[in-house]
Amino acid sequence: MDMIIVTGMSGSGKGTAFKMLEDRGYFCVDNLPVKLLDRFLDLTNTAEGAKDKIALGIDIRGGENIDSMLETLEQLFGKHRMFKMLYMDASDECLIRRYKESRHVHPLYETAGSLEEAIHLERKKLEPVRKRADYVIDTSFLLTRELQNRLKDIFENHGSFKNLNVTVMTFGFKNGVPQEADFVFDVRFLPNPHYDPVLRPHTGNEKIIQDYVLNNPEAEEFLDKLFAMFRFLIPQFMKAEKNQLVIAVGCTGGKHRSVSVGNRLYEALKEDTSYGCNLIHRDLYRNRS
Q: Count of domains in the chain?
């Protein structure tokens, strides 16, 4: 029997993960009380209720003591059944935004008294679960199709999944530095197409701008050193079990130079399949002129 425990932070995308697992043939049961697990497993072992692939959603909504929940899981599955635990996560800022957009109520809101405190309390309670997890996916910057690809890496391409997801984010300094950035690179020293009326309407996604920005000795040397630094750093972050790394590249408006460099960095990093990688142009279509 292939069994998966889906858990993690409220609002991190567990429902989306469940839908994807269901589409892949898993029998999904969400928010099952831990005390009913033993009976549930007995039922799935009968000829009438036999299931080859099961996904169980167990999280803070069950109201269980986290330590006792983990102990129960280990007792039920440890000796006789193999199971994997998938932990869904996202940054506090991302979770707050999602809750405000959806207008859903956090399960711990009444206990904590505010959304921010509820998220902090849940994160603290779930820390032992996160440490036990076999897979951790941070969905802060993942599109639905990117989440699908990462779940496919776990449950179809066995052995190829790594917990680290690297996000290359381009931005314009005039719109503020991304708060979620782990590294910030200022590329305003590169030639600026904004001052050429012919080039100004184009973006760093186009070859004409990329050639203008990057075809010079300074840009080539900068890119070589940038690539070399992250070829060294990323494996170190993977050893440290970091799950999300955000590399921010900024220019004045986030349209030409940062996009050109960000595209080149993303192309270089995504060649290594030992971690996930995605690209976000935060300010590309903001204040177009």
A: 2
Question: Are 21 and 149 within one domain?
Answer: yes
pLDDT tens-place string over residues 114-167: 999 999 999 998 988 888 888 889 998 888 888 887 887 777 765 555 678 899
Q: Identify the pLDDT of residue 214.
A: 97
Which pLDDT tens digit goes with each residue over 269-282?
999 988 888 999 99
Q: Helix, strand, coil shares of the chain as percentages rounded to 5?
A: 45, 20, 35
Distance in angstroms (rounded) separating the CA atoms of residues 247 and 169 = 6
Amino acid type, 245: L
Task: Give strand pairing partners of 27.
Answer: 54
Structure-derived torsion over alpha carbons of residues 38, 41, 47, 50, reported in degrees to the nearest 10: 170
- Ramachandran region of residue 201, left (φ > 0), alpha (ψ -120 to 50) or beta? alpha
CA distance 48 to 117: 45
8 Å CB contact between 190 and 238 = no
> Is the same domain home to 78 and 115?
yes
Structure tokens that stand for 109 in this block: 């809101």
| Alpha carbon 159 to its chain's center | 18
The radius of gyration computed from the CA coordinates of the chain, to the nearest angstrom, equals 22
- The tokens of 91 are what? 């940054």
Q: Look at residues 129, 135, 127 and name the one whose alpha carbon lies nearest to residue 34.
A: 129
Residue 160 within any structural domain of the chain: no
Instruction: Identify the residue with better confidence: 221 or 59.
Output: 221
